[in-house]
């Protein structure tokens, strides 16, 4: 179990945790300290320099919303945003509790009375918005992957289909999400008509825009992965007379999985960037909308709150990439390949 | 024993190139008896592998053809199993699973689950790989990979076993081991084998007949040498054997004197 966790941490780039554990348990202190110095101290120093530069530059610039926030103001706003979330949580709990009590009274008077709990409609907090963003991007990404992987496999297997698809792929690949969004918005409002919609239109618009931008790297990488299968392995499948499906499942898919995951990783990174822009315009209640609302709000805290969002977006993007890296390493059969 | 188990009849192949067709093989005719071990030897690039690929069905002859038990060969199939030069195991499967893929494909519906399992293990034992069944190709040595590759081919119960320089990528000691194992297996199973090699000792030691090929383009069979040495053959005692050395000299002469490359 211990080794498993350590391998996982090593796979995700947190291998230095292992060194701390070893330092505490006391094997070979000097060496562990050296490794730690390199893997923690150097990045920490760089971060410190960054904070100092930021603080000194920020204090020089005045905007119509006041001074550009330095690290201190941003930290204050982080705490404020968290407290707001806790407060809202309490309010919601109180709101629900009140309803439960009222319902109990009603039921005590008349056991047949119809009771229901109304959902809390207070303002969404920062943490809720983070969550909205994450599941919106994952929806878009998963839908894109479900389309892109089969398309990539088919393009990789058939040069004719590849030649047919390639110009289209190359043409749509560089299109900005901002160009897709108006079209997506109009199509969704025309097609998705329902009295009791299961999804918000803003959520669909953002997710679909993410999908449209996530498709391409996965398609391209899967195609390359599939078409670069060792010809000897294809000969093996010919000698065995494997059926088409068996060939794809037993030989084509496994051998192209490392390339495929490299593509998925790029796709998710792009998807996350696209999402923020899409949310701004589609008004999906996620981080993008948060940034836009704060910008429109224009209070003296706004810039600091936007900086909090900038860091949140960065850190979540980093974590998503690490998760994909871990997946990529766990499915890669070529243990000699350097993946970072 | 039928006399004409495998027949290559006037096999000629042209490969298309931008400068017109390139004739790789010209008029290759050869008849192989059941249970015979035949080596193809020649300089690299002379089309040995092309002959093997045509028998395997991976290439199609431009004219002429291959008959196996009177039936024409025109597509690859497990009755003509191939041992590839660089093992060609699926790197994401263990040794057992690699053989299993072949066995399940060939004996689908003919063997029960336990029979399949026994057959896989039996073939891995034949090549002395039972101890590393669950290892992946990246975890075993080059010689061991080739052993698994041979086990996979043998497990298909082929009518003809085709080996494309099976030991070419191995070091001399491992190669000697592999040759011993192959002779041992051959002694037991009496397969019909076509093996490509560029190692004279290997050809003489293993074969019943050595087919020597001329250099390309338009390569064809130059000479055929019958190797009449008692089996089982022992490498060490043969080293001093006059007949053995005579055969060796014959092959060397063919390769170096008559068909040595001008610009080798």
What ranges of chain A have pLDDT less than 50 throughout 5 or more consecutive residues?
none
Q: What oligomeric state do these chains adopt? A: heterodimer
- Spatial strand sequence of the major β-sheet of chain A: 1-2
Assess the beta-strand content of chain B as a share of residues: 15-25%
Number of helices of chain B: 8
Write the H/E string of chain B, N to C: EEEHEEEHHHEHEHEEHH
What is the CATH architecture term of the domain at 1-79 and 197-264 in chain B?
Answer: 3-Layer(aba) Sandwich
Biggest pleated-sheet summary of chain A: 2 strands, antiparallel
Number of strands of chain B: 10
Please estimate the helix content of chain A. Answer: over 70%
CATH superfamily of the domain at 1-79 and 197-264 in chain B: P-loop containing nucleotide triphosphate hydrolases
Percent helix of chain B, as a range, is: 25-40%
Q: In angstroms, what is the radius of gyration of chain B?
A: 19 Å
Tell me, briefly, the overall form of chain A: globular
Overall number of structural domains of chain A: 2
Mean pLDDT of chain A: 88
Produce the secondary structure layout.
The complex is a heterodimer of chains A (340) and B (264).
Chain A: H1 2-11, H2 16-25, H3 29-58, E1 62-63, E2 66-67, H4 71-109, H5 126-157, H6 159-172, H7 177-191, H8 201-227, H9 231-239, H10 244-282, H11 287-297, H12 302-331
Antiparallel strand pairs in A: 1-2
Helix pairs in contact in A: 2-3, 4-12, 5-6, 5-8, 5-10, 5-11, 6-8, 7-8, 7-10, 8-10, 10-11, 10-12, 11-12
Chain B: E1 6-17, E2 20-32, E3 37-41, H1 48-56, E4 63-68, E5 71-72, E6 80-83, H2 95-106, H3 113-126, H4 142-155, E7 160-164, H5 172-189, E8 192-197, H6 200-206, E9 209-213, E10 221-226, H7 235-238, H8 242-258
Parallel strand pairs in B: 3-8, 3-9, 6-7, 7-8
Antiparallel strand pairs in B: 1-2, 1-4, 4-5, 9-10
Helix pairs in contact in B: 2-3, 2-4, 3-4, 6-8
């Amino acid at each position: 179990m211990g080794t498993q966790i350590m391998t996982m941490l090593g796979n995700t780039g947190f291998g230095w945790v292992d060194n701390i554990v070893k330092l505490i348990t006391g094997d070979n202190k000097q060496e562990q300290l050296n490794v730690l110095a390199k893997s923690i101290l150097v990045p920490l120093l760089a971060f410190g320099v960054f904070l100092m530069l930021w603080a000194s530059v920020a204090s020089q610039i005045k905007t119509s919303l006041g001074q550009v926030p330095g690290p201190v103001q941003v930290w204050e706003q982080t705490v404020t945003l968290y407290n707001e979330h806790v407060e809202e949580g309490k309010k919601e709990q109180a709101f629900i509790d009140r309803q439960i009590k009222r319902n109990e009274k009603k039921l005590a008077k008349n056991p047949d009375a119809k009771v229901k709990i109304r959902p809390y409609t207070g303002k969404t907090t920062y943490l809720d918005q983070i969550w909205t963003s994450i599941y919106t991007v994952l929806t878009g990404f998963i839908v894109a992957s479900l389309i892109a992987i089969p398309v990539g496999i088919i393009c990789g297997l058939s040069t004719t289909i590849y030649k047919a698809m390639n110009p289209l792929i190359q043409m749509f690949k560089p299109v900005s999400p901002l160009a897709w969004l108006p079209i997506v918005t109009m199509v969704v409002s025309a097609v998705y008509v329902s009295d009791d919609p299961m999804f918000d239109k803003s959520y669909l618009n953002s997710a679909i825009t993410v999908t449209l931008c996530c498709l391409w790297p996965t398609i391209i990488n899967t195609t390359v992965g599939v078409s670069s299968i060792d010809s000897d392995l294809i000969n093996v499948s010919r000698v065995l007379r494997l059926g088409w499906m068996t060939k794809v499942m037993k030989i084509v898919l496994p051998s192209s999985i490392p390339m495929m995951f490299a593509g998925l990783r790029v796709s998710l990174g792009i998807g996350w960037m696209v999402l923020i822009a899409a949310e701004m315009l589609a008004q999906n209640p996620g981080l993008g909308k948060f940034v836009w609302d704060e910008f429109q709000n224009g209070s003296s805290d706004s810039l600091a709150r936007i900086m909090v969002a900038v860091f949140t977006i960065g850190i979540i993007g980093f974590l998503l990439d690490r998760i994909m890296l871990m997946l990529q390493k766990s499915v890669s059969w070529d243990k000699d390949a350097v993946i970072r | 024993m039928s006399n004409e188990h495998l027949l290559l009849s006037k096999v000629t192949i042209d490969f298309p190139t931008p400068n017109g067709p390139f004739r790789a093989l010209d008029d290759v005719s050869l008849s192989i008896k059941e249970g015979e071990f035949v080596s193809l030897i020649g300089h690299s690039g002379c089309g040995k592998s092309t002959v093997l690929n045509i028998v395997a069905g991976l290439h199609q002859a431009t004219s002429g053809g291959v008959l196996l038990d009177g039936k024409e060969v025109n597509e690859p199939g497990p009755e003509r199993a191939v041992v590839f030069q660089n093992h060609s195991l699926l790197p994401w499967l263990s040794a057992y699973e690699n053989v299993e893929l072949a066995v399940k494909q060939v004996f689908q519906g003919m063997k029960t689950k336990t029979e399949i399992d026994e057959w896989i293990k039996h073939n891995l034992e034949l090549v002395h790989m039972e101890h590393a069944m669950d290892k992946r190709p990246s975890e075993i040595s080059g010689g061991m990979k080739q052993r698994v590759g041979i086990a996979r081919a043998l497990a298909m119960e082929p009518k003809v076993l085709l080996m494309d320089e099976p030991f070419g990528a191995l070091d001399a000691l491992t190669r000697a081991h592999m040759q011993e194992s192959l002779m041992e297996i051959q002694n037991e199973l009496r397969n019909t084998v076509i093996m490509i090699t560029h190692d004279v000792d290997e050809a003489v030691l293993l074969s019943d007949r050595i087919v020597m090929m001329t250099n390309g383009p338009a390569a064809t069979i130059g000479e055929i040498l019958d190797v009449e040495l008692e089996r089982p053959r022992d490498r060490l005692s043969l080293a001093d054997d006059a007949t053995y050395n005579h055969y060796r000299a014959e092959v060397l002469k063919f390769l170096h004197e008559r068909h040595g490359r001008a610009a080798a």
